[in-house]
Amino acid sequence: MTTIELTLGDIEKLAREVFTKNGCDKTNTAALVQTVVAAECDGAMSHGLFRVPGYIASLRSGKVRGDANPRVENTTPALIRVDGDNGFTPLSIKRGIPALTTAAKTVGIAAMTITNTHHFAALWPETEAIAAHDLIGLACVCYMPFMAPFGGNRPLFGTNPISFAWPRPGKNPMVIDMATAAMAQGEIQIAARDGHKVPLGTGLNASGDQTTDASDILKGMLLPFGGYKGSAIALMVELLAAGATGEQFSFEAVKTDNGDGGPPRGGEFFLAISPEMLAGSDWVTHCEEFFAKYESIDGARLPGQRRHNNRMSDAPRKINRQLVEQIESLCDS
Amino acid sequence: MTTIELTLGDIEKLAREVFTKNGCDKTNTAALVQTVVAAECDGAMSHGLFRVPGYIASLRSGKVRGDANPRVENTTPALIRVDGDNGFTPLSIKRGIPALTTAAKTVGIAAMTITNTHHFAALWPETEAIAAHDLIGLACVCYMPFMAPFGGNRPLFGTNPISFAWPRPGKNPMVIDMATAAMAQGEIQIAARDGHKVPLGTGLNASGDQTTDASDILKGMLLPFGGYKGSAIALMVELLAAGATGEQFSFEAVKTDNGDGGPPRGGEFFLAISPEMLAGSDWVTHCEEFFAKYESIDGARLPGQRRHNNRMSDAPRKINRQLVEQIESLCDS
Known about the structure:
The structure is a homodimer of 333-residue chains. Chain A has 333 residues and is α+β, with helices and mostly antiparallel strands.
C-alpha cells in the first residue's frame, strides 16, 4: 500500500469538492466535510476519506438525498425526534444536538432519535459534541447483518458501535467509541484490502467456521467482542438503535438497501445526561480524582486518548494513494 | 460440597427469620427477603442465601441500618433522587421505582440515583421491575476495587455489573445482567470455596500475574471481560454508578468500609425509557419480529432465559448445607 501526504486543508478541499460535485447542497456538504476531516484529524482512517466512495455511491444511486432538510421536534421536555429527510446523518446530528443538550440541561436527561437517515461515520463526533456542553453523551447505531450473536452462525447484528463520552471541563472528554464486533467493519475492510490476517475469534466464514482471513470474514460474518457478554452489549445497541427509534433493524435494512455500497437507512439513538443535576456541583472534582487514580496505574490508558493526541498535530496525514485517486476521479464524472 | 433441598417457602422463612433476628424492621426485611428469594428462585445462587452472612455481618457491625427509611424526591420531571438512609438497597429500589417509572411514562425518559445505600444483590430485580411497566430499564453499581483496567495490574473497578431489560408485553422481558469482570465476584467466591479452577484471563494474582486459582485471584484482582472493550464498559459503569450519582467510586468505598465482609456504601444509577413514546405504537410488533429472527438462529440464546426457565419451577432448590447451617446459627446468636 502506498500513501501520499495530505494536509487537513487538502483533505477538507477534496471532501468539499467531491460532495459538491455529486449533488450535495451547501449545508449537507459542510456537515459531511466536517465529519470526514474530524476522522482524518483524529487518525481514524477507517471513518474518513475511506468512506467517501460509499457516500458518493449512495448519492449517485439516488438512495440518499444530498439536499436533505432534517426537521427537529421536541415531543416532550425530555425527548427529541429528528426526521433526517433521507439524507446522511451528519446534518441531522448538527441540527439535533442543540435541542438535545438544551433539554438535558433543563430537565437533567434527554433522549433523541434520528430516523430516516444513513449513518456512515464514527460516533464520537456526536458524543463529544454532547460532552462539550458538560453533559454525559451516549450514541449508538446498527447497520446491516454482519455479525452473529454469540453461539450462532448466522449474521443478525450490524457491527453495532456504541459511543459514551464523559465530560471533563477544561480537558478533552473521556470518549469510548467502539464496535461491539471483535473488529470494526472499516478495520476489517482495510485488513482485507491490505491482505492482513486478523486474530482468530474475529469472525466466521460463510460456512460458519473460524478463520483469520479478513476477506473470508467479509463474505461470512464477524463475531461479537468478549463472547456472550459482548454479544449482550451488541444486542442492547441493536435494540436501542432500531427498537427504540422505530427505524430498521439490521436484518430489515439489508432487505430495503439497494446494495450500492453506501450506508443503508437506519436510526440513531442518543442520550444526554447532566452529571451536575444528578450528582451536584462537586461532580467535576469527584470525577477528576477518579481519573487521576486511573491514570496512576501503569499500563492503563483512558479510552479516546490516542485520538485526542493525534488531533493535536497539524502535520499532513498519510492517505492511501489509490483512495485519493479514486475520490479525485469521483469529482470529475 | 453437600447440598440440602429447601422449598422457596423454606428459603423465605429462613431469610425472614435471620433478618428479623438481626435488627431489620418489617419493611426492610420484606424487601431483603424478596431479593434473596428471587435470586434462589431464578437459580442465581451467588446472589441469594450466599449473600446473607454478609448482610448480617453489616447489620451486626452497625455499618448498615436495619431500620433505614429511604426518602424519594423528584428533583425535576425526569430525575429522581433516593437517599437510602444508610440501609441496604432493596427498600430504596422498591420505593424509588414507582417514581422513576411514572416520570418515564410522563416525559419519555427518566434517571434515578440511589445514594447512601449498600448494594449486595443482582440487578435484574430492578430492571425487570422497570420493564414490567413496558419501559426499557438500565441499572448499574460499582463496589470495591477488585478489577484492574485493561493493561493495568492494580485493581480500580468493582466487578461493575450492568443490567439492561427490554420489555416484551405479555412475555418475560429480555434481561441482560452481567458483571463487566470476566467472572462475577460471587461466582469466583464460590469457585474458591469449592476448589474449582477458573479460565486463564479471569484475573491476576496479587503480583499481577495470570492465574487459574480462584483463591489467588481473590487475593489479587479480576480482569474485565473482552479486553479493552470490556474494560471500557466497566469504566462506563463505574462513572455512572459513582460519578453520576455523587456516591463513592470503588477506590473510595474501600477506604471508608469497615471490612466486615458486607457491602460498602455506594450508589446505584438507573434509567427508564419509554419505547412507545420514542418509537410509536408499533414498537412491540417491530421488536418481536426482531426477537423471532434472533431465536431462529441455531445456538443463539436471548440473555436471561435460563433464569426465567428456572423461575417456572416450584421444585425445592439445592442449597449448600454449610451455608444453611451458618444462616441458622446467625438466627440464634
